[in-house]
Amino acid sequence: CHCENGGTCKKRGECHCKAGYSGSHCETPVCRPHCRNGGVCTQPGVCMCPSHFTGSICQTPICDPVCQNGGHCVGNNQCLCPPNTSGKYCQNYTCGAGCENGGTCVGPGLCECPHNATGELCQEPLCDPPCENSATCAPGNICICQPHSSGPRCHDKKCEYRPVQEPYVRGYRRLLLKKHFETKCDSRNWKSCIKTVPEYQNVYERAYRTTYKCIDQP
């Protein structure tokens, strides 16, 4: 009998194969575990893998190009994408229900908003110049005013003027006493006069005055 790969011919013309080979003539190499995903055993324990698979038994798929953004290659050019990514190679980001008001998805759940919007999904419009007096900004750079205001930016208040007692501090000088002293009446110093010098104290006190103030209408 004819035995290959170091096999030994036994009785009845049968081959006794060395470890790592099988077949009637020991012509077939053996790989244990078996080659997977279409791999071919070319030598004992050596698998020749098809394209897009690698590993000792061709167990690991290859994705070309590689999966992006944390994706995992699970088959022949098949990527398993993490949340908030999409595309054949997980190359695209997704942002929940999508960015609004012209925003662009630039990361997992992350929107880059234009100048006229804000919020996680750019869902909140921004007005420029901003709305005043607690007004609400609506799409199209429009301000929705509260009942007590008006104008394009809601900057004009509707007022009811009411009298208000406003405190203030007023001051005056209070006469304390008068000092009398004798002095010469002129430069010749031949006649005496009595002069009086008053002394004052500065006094400050709290007072009230009526003013009219704008009271926001409800």
TrEMBL record:
Cystine crosslinks: 17-26, 63-73, 81-90, 127-137, 145-154
Domain EGF-like: 1-27, 59-91, 123-155
InterPro entries: Dev_Signal_Modulators, EGF
GO MF, one example: signaling receptor binding
UniProt GO cellular component terms: cell surface; extracellular region
Record Pfam families: EGF_TEN
Keyword Signal in record: yes
SMART domains documented for this protein: EGF
Keywords assigned: Disulfide bond, EGF-like domain, Signal
Protein's name according to its UniProt entry: EGF-like domain-containing protein
